[in-house]
Automatic annotation (TrEMBL):
Gene Ontology cellular-component terms listed: cell surface; cortical granule; endoplasmic reticulum membrane; sarcoplasmic reticulum lumen
Keywords carried by this UniProt record: Calcium, Chaperone, Disulfide bond, Endoplasmic reticulum, Lectin, Metal-binding, Repeat, Signal, Zinc
Top-level taxon of origin: Eukaryota
Region span, Disordered: 195-257, 347-421
InterPro entries: Calret/calnex, Calret/calnex_CS, Calreticulin, Calreticulin/calnexin_P_dom_sf, ConA-like_dom_sf
Bias (Basic and acidic residues): 206-250, 350-376
UniProt entry tagged with the keyword Signal: yes
GO MF terms, alphabetically ordered: calcium ion binding; carbohydrate binding; unfolded protein binding
Protein name (record): Calreticulin
Localization per record: Cell surface; Cytoplasmic vesicle, Secretory vesicle, Cortical granule; Endoplasmic reticulum lumen; Sarcoplasmic reticulum lumen
UniProt feature coiled coil, ranges: none
PROSITE patterns (UniProt xref): CALRETICULIN_1, CALRETICULIN_2, CALRETICULIN_REPEAT
GO biological process, one term: ERAD pathway
Amino acid sequence: MQALGVVAVILAVYCVNAKVYFREEFLDGDEWRSRWVNSKHKSDYGEWKLTAGDFYGDAEKDKGLQTSQDARFYATSARFEPFSNEGKSLVIQFTVKHEQKIDCGGGYVKVFPADLDQAAMHGESSYYIMFGPDICGYSTKKVHVIFNYKGKNHLIKKEIKCKDDELTHLYTLILNPDQTYEVKIDNEKVESGSLEDDWDFLPPKKIKDPEAKKPEDWDDRAKIDDPDDTKPEDWDKPENIPDPDAKKPEDWDEDMDGEWEPPMIPNPEYKGEWKPKQIDNPNYKGAWVHPEIDNPEYGADSNIYKFDSIGVLGLDLWQVKSGTIFDNFLITDDVKEAEDIAKETWGVTKEPEKKMKQEQDDLKRKEEEEKNKEQDTEGDDDDDEEDGNEEEEEDEEEESKDDVEEALSEMEKDESGHNSTWLGGVKCSEVGHVGVIGLSFALILVLMLPFCP
Ligand SMILES: *[C@@H]1O[C@H](CO)[C@@H](O)[C@H](O)[C@H]1NC(C)=O
């Protein structure tokens, strides 16, 4: 009985200890609008929509915030009672669903200090943590884990791949007071380690000794010329010689053509430049290794993980093709609690969601097959022309997709550029198309000029 009592007390303490700082599942219709503040920093931010999307596990529970306009920046945030994670774990968790087959766009959250001016939030607003998936083209498909330390943002040095399918996925970041971290996707660990190892927060522990210099007489040549090797006496031969087989042409006129000289040909006996044999250097000491010393700049810091006044969670991102749904936001100090809540929310709806998507895909495939069959039988009639047109249209669509892919990869290369410059890029390539057509017309007109009456 007593033992049971102790267990009960421990359980009670444990349960009371789990603290949920922020939880948002969008279960009360339009009320979210009173909790989330849209930034006014730009006038043309994209609109957020509350929806479960085209397929879902539960029509109500799966409602989340969806980006609804293509090629837009998005910026909204929600506030909670400020707290410090000192001496406690910090868990940041949410779900992301790129149901639109995303080409380029952020799927991450930013966690801000409580003093953030939400209405003025923008891309450069300073934050504590940025965490979550980011996709752009084929090559950027990663999970960002960025921490602000002493006013500077530090990116994780490891590459963590994110999900790039159309289903809802759960992203979890755990930050512990012992300065370790863990990243989970769909409640499974995908990366973990220590803050010091996986980010460059602190200067390196060791540096090259600035006092140490390679000794003057340090011989780091592994091979040297053989001093006993000498050039053979008969080595030097001219590179080119007069062709011995050449003969003065019969009709050569010395007065007119000058003195006849045979053409030069490469000398078969020419051996090139002489080089002595190479032998092992008896004085070779090996490569000189610069000795290292403790870096005087280095100072251990056991508070890298600590953020004093965590108070706002924000979505501040850019999306080319919109349709991403964010849901199930959670910030807590309890890893187990986060896991349990994940199981009760995402864990319950993910399978039915997958099934609904599967059914929709199957239906679409069947419809397409039917359509193709119809077209095949129609094709026997004499409306081939129409078919041809349709194919052309499809081709054009493919082409413009290529353009987008090209522009995307261009943008990735241009690290310094801003995302709005990418939009310019697309416009340019569209102008390019129109330009080519325009020029062609102009050319035809010019060519027709001579035929004008
Ligand atoms: C633009 O947005 C995409 C998607 O979030 C991101 O991957 C990329 O790094 C951004 N580019 C710039 C220049 O900020």
